[in-house]
Amino acid sequence: MKKLLLLVAVAAVGYVVWQKYQQDQDERDLWSEVTDTFE
Question: What Rg, from alpha-carbon coordinates, does the chain have?
């Protein structure tokens, strides 16, 4: 049972980290689109 709880906790942390990475990537994409001077 403890292994299952540990697995769930690790999965939850991994999900949170992945969401943060995706948000940061989206923000970088937006900034590069806004500040891109090549047309």
Answer: 17
Give the Cα separation of 20 and 12 in Å (integer). Answer: 12
Structure pTM?
A: 0.67
Helix, strand, or coil (residue 1): coil
How far is residue 35's CA from residue 33's CA, in Å, rounded to a whole number? 6
**2-39, pLDDT tens digit by residue?**
999 999 999 999 999 999 999 999 999 888 888 876 65
- Residue in this structure with the two tokens 């949170």, named with its chain if needed: 16
